[in-house]
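User: Hey, quick favor. My workstation is busy. Could you predict this chain's structure for me?
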Amino acid sequence: MPGRRATLLAIALAGALPIAGCGADAAVTRDDAGVVTLRLDEYRILPQRVRVPSGRFEIVATNRGVLTHNVAIVSPGRRPGQVEVQYAHTATAHPGQTVRTEVHLKPGKYRMVCTLANHDNLGQYGELIVG
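Assistant: No problem, here it is.
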């Protein structure tokens, strides 16, 4: 019986790990100082969810990857036939480089994306919640 009990415990723990991992992505980073600091690397924008007060703020993004990246703030919807509106974007950041842009947004939800090649489709995006 001890062998069966250990096996059942291992199965239960293996099933719980993916559930526990999902909560880590739900964290929202809040910045009230007017500066949103982002880290870019291969196919990630970190933090992935950011909450800021409405109005003017600055995005400061550092490329820690080996490819070039950028950050654009775009409309939240990506439905077929819908035109994506770009509200702001940084210059292209080469590896190790930091880029900046100033943004003024009304309350709402926006997407942060890398617009280079297919980086957005590979997972280099995040959510910006304003207000």
